[in-house]
Amino acid sequence: MIVAHRGASDDAPENTLDAFRLAWSQNADAIEGDFRLTKDEQIVCIHDEDTSRTCGEKLIVAENTYVELSKLDASAYYKGDVAPQSIPLLSDIFKTIPNNKGIYIEVKCGPEIVPALITAIINSNLRKEQISIIAFDDSVVKALKSVAPHIKANLLYDVALPVDSSELLDRLKNTKADGLSSNNINSKELINAIIQASFEYHSWTVDDSKTAKKLLEWGVNSITTNRPGYLRQQLY
User: Fold this and answer.
1) Do the bridges between strand 179-182 and strand 102-107 make them parallel or antiparallel, or are there none, so unpaired?
2) pLDDT band at 162 (very low <50, low <70, confident <90, very high)
3) Are 69 and 102 in contact (CB under 8 A)?
């Protein structure tokens, strides 16, 4: 699977509806976005704890309501010629997803988001097979799987070699995760260890076809990229 990192973020402002719609037009298999909980418990798509980098004005996401956040321009940082973009709700992003495509929901806050996340998933028209939750925080994955074991959840891990694969496998088992998603693209041994233990292995963020082809040969389940259209053309 080719997964569009924050949408087609090379060609549009990251984590905006335009970026996600563009990813579908570039034939991505799935989109990946970053999600946080607002003060009024709405789930919004933004990577950072505050809005300064992308919007040019600083509001802390967890300390402001969605109405307050929605007034900002989420494309203010982008150097291309684009129309102003608001910070989207997860529910609005769900509506863009075609029937045969999926979404990787990266939780950037803590497990407090899980009840609202489950509600949003239930209220969507998506099948469970279309949704994967991903998080660096073990407690998020554990909380999600404890209340919704049927929803796929993968643990994110920033690999610095050498890595203890046995420790990682223990974490996957403890959290009841379905797999691991990591940034390391040079450790075939790690990928083999994860896959042989019956877990999925996903890789990010890969923008060159040579690396992508290598990872496909090694059996990864998905490749997350800023350039879904380019990678699709190069690989298939």
Assistant:
1) unpaired
2) confident
3) no
Whether the per-residue pLDDT at 184 is higher than 80: the answer is no
Beta-carbon contacts of residue 144 (< 8 Å; ≥ 6 apart)? 111, 114, 117, 118, 133, 151, 153
pLDDT computed for residue 187 by the predictor: 86
Helix 188-196 to helix 209-218 angle, to the nearest 10 degrees?
40
Q: What is the pLDDT of residue 113?
A: 98
Tell me the pLDDT band of 80, cut-offs 50, 70 and 90.
Answer: confident
Per-residue confidence (pLDDT) for residue 222, from 0 to 100: 97
The single-letter code of the amino acid at 226 is N
- Number of domain units in the chain: 1
Residue type, 33: G
Domain residues for the domain of 170 are 2-235
CA–CA gap between residue 112 and residue 120 (Å, rounded): 14
Cβ count within 10 A of residue 205: 16
CATH number of the domain that residue 136 is part of: 3.20.20.190
State both tokens at 216: 């496909």
Name the amino acid, one letter, at 65.
T
How many Cβ atoms are within 10 Å of 126's Cβ, its own excluded? 18
* φ, ψ dihedrals at 232, nearest 5°: -60, -45
